Amino acid sequence: MSRIIVTGGAGFIGSNLCERLVNDGNDVICLDNFFTGSKDNIRHLIGNSRFELVRHDVTKEFYAEADQIYNLACPASPPSYQYNPIKTIKTSVMGTINMLGLAKRCKARILQASTSEIYGDPKIHPQTEDYWGNVNPIGIRSCYDEGKRCAETLMMDYHRQNNVDIRIVRIFNTYGPKMDKNDGRVVSNFIVQALQNQDITIYGDGSQTRSFCYIDDLVEALIRMQNNKEGFIGPVNLGNPSERSILEFAERIIKLTNSNSKIIHKPLPSDDPTRRRPNISLAKEKLKWEPKIDIDEGLKRTIEYFDNLLKNENNKE
Ligand code: NAD
Ligand code: UDP
What we know:
Strand content: 15-25%
Mean pLDDT: 97
CATH architecture: 3-Layer(aba) Sandwich
Strand order of the largest sheet: 3-2-1-4-5-6-11
Number of domains: 1
CATH class: Alpha Beta
Number of helices: 9
Bound molecules: nicotinamide-adenine-dinucleotide, uridine-5'-diphosphate
Helix content: 25-40%
Low-confidence stretches: none
Shape: globular
Distance between the termini: 43 Å
Order of helices and strands: EHEEEHHEHEEHEEEHEEHEHH
Largest sheet: 7 strands, parallel
Number of strands: 13
Structural class: alpha/beta
CATH topology: Rossmann fold
CATH superfamily: NAD(P)-binding Rossmann-like Domain
């Protein structure tokens, strides 16, 4: 049993992680300011003596005792992180400093949720951890990308200067139950549009690629990384290397939902990466981990989740 802080614990990845950590017998403190997260995601854990929910903004200091920290707080979908870009970069920079300070004081191990976005619009493909990236420092995605790059720098400097026990994971597109249906990411948008027989909105021509990892696979990898006995092994890519175009992805969702939706095209947002696929050799070697859930199975479970959510909402009206 460990005392574990999960920042951003009411969000998509955080709530799935909190559930797993509580079920594994740990004491979990979930910190969240509910910007993109929701109490609904963790409602079933409230009342469990192993789970504490604290409304807290990580840009402010936080004092508690802990053995481990998972630093996940940060809006992750482009529309949410661009809604208040200054707050987004403050969350990554000040939030990470505050959590590193806590880790240093408690001698806790801290895992930072970094992202494939630190590679920007990558010039090498698939992306390996030694690639430094191709990131626009002044664009509309920079508040997120550069915030996350700075968070990695802070982790490294606290490690070198103060000996803090750190872990850095670079998460590639992840999907599954508890994603916010309105947060504008491609998986939730397409599934909700398909279930409601609305037009499927492809940005650009749909030739851009992404590699989608199912949430249960990612949670397993986060826990393996945090508990890896080797100490700091450098940043590690976590994702599913199975890459597909956004157009192919839309067609797959239409088929799996038996939808009558039509595909329409909207303008491609600026700096939208043209391709993205993780090289996960390091995770395979060091964590003995690779994704197990294929895209059709993962999408089936996610479609079922959104279908129930929409039906419940309709019943309430
Ligand atoms: P999410 O938006 O669902 O969750 C983020 C959570 O952080 C929310 O609960 C939100 O309310 C909370 N939060 C935001 N700002 C905060 C603040 N200042 N103080 C306290 N809480 C705050 O996103 P997610 O998909 O669950 O992503 C979780 C983490 O994983 C993020 O750091 C994200 O950058 C990273 N990540 C996610 C993906 C993905 O595909 N889902 C990919 C790469 C990296
Ligand atoms: N996208 C799309 N239609 C949508 C939402 C997103 O075509 O309704 C595209 C988006 O332009 C990007 C890809 O899908 O090329 C993945 O977008 P998402 O916002 O999920 O994540 P990210 O761009 O951060 O990988």
